[in-house]
Design brief:
Two copies of one chain form a homodimer. Chain A has 143 residues and is an alpha+beta fold. Chain A has two domains: 85 residues, Winged helix-like DNA-binding domain superfamily/Winged helix DNA-binding domain (Arc Repressor Mutant, subunit A); 43 residues, Ferric-uptake regulator, C-terminal dimerisarion domain (Dna Ligase, domain 1, 2-Layer Sandwich), CATH 3.30.1490. Chain A has five helices and six strands. A three-stranded antiparallel β-sheet of chain A has the order 1-3-2. Chain A has a three-stranded mixed β-sheet with strand order 5-4-6, with helices on one face. In chain A, helix 3 crosses helix 4. Chain A starts with a helix and ends in a 5-residue tail after the last strand. The model of chain A has no long low-confidence stretch (mean pLDDT 86). Chains A and B meet through helix 5 and strand 6 of A and helix 5 and strand 6 of B. Chain A binds a DNA duplex (25 and 25 nucleotides) through helix 2 and helix 4. Chains A, B: Belongs to the Fur family.
DNA sequence: CTGAGTGCAAAACATTTGCATCCAG
DNA sequence: CTGGATGCAAATGTTTTGCACTCAG
């Protein structure tokens, strides 16, 4: 997916940011691990194997940057740490089933909530830009 | 609302836990601040005014305990800290609109998602025990 | 060249834990 | 009395920051 890299390059250019090797590498790792929900530490461990001279702080700063640019999203599974995933290119929302037993996270899509969302926005005069839904329970294995 | 205190007392008794003055005080503060979403630090500040000899660690331990007992719920607004609120007595779910600009949190109820939830549970063979929904956007004031 | 980006170590926070002391039942 | 509960300080774990050095544009 060479396009993602080009996207990043352009995005960075518009803000006078630079496309460094570290940023390229972290983007690549995110691409290689789509569907997983990596923490900064996870990424740091992977990154170290390929380029030992990279700092954890840079991982954090890069994830922060990518998040600001909108190419990744921060996830929060009520753990002690943040996780990250590549944003969905389109508007296809996807959300999570979180197993309270083993912590497994299952993804699902929805297209049902639009009406509900519109209604809600009206009622509270609130301009909704995104939503995040999590269902908690027991997964197949843990029941 | 004397009943809440009695509830707590009974709950504690069944597990051989004790009803200490600190636990009473923290329950009272939670009752006095319904609808707000207090952090441990918030509670600690309030608690200190009324009983200067109480430790932050006790606040955390008490909130943890209350959470286990199910009388409060932990909230996570993608901040750096946890917040807490008294659980809804009945099954009435309530969720949040989070303003991305000012951080304001607006509550709303829903009874719409049941069907969606059932369907989802079926499809993924996932036993859902609760759900958490957050919508993000701009509130009335910040638009 | 030059300012943005990086690595490293130190700092900053929220939360947890060890331990001696205290007190509810 | 006695084990659960507390206060304090120290420890932990994640994320952030200061600063001198590096490198992409």
């Amino acid at each position: 997916m060479e396009s993602k890299l080009q996207d990043l390059k352009s995005l960075l250019a518009t803000k006078n940011y630079k496309l460094t090797s570290q940023r390229k590498l972290i983007l690549q790792i995110l691409l290689d691990h789509q569907g997983e929900h990596l923490s900064a530490e996870d990424i740091y461990q992977i990154v170290k194997q390929e380029d030992s001279g990279i700092g954890l702080a840079t991982v954090y700063r890069t994830l922060e940057l990518f998040s600001d640019l909108g190419i990744i999203q921060q996830l929060n599974f009520d753990e002690d740490r943040r996780r990250y995933e590549l944003g969905t290119n389109n508007d296809e929302h996807h959300h999570h089933l979180v197993c309270e037993e083993c912590g497994r996270v299952i993804e699902f899509n929805d297209e049902i909530l639009e009406a509900f969302e519109d209604d809600l926005a009206d009622k509270h005069n609130f301009k909704i830009t995104q939503h995040r839904i999590k269902f908690y329970g027991r997964c197949k294995e843990c029941q």
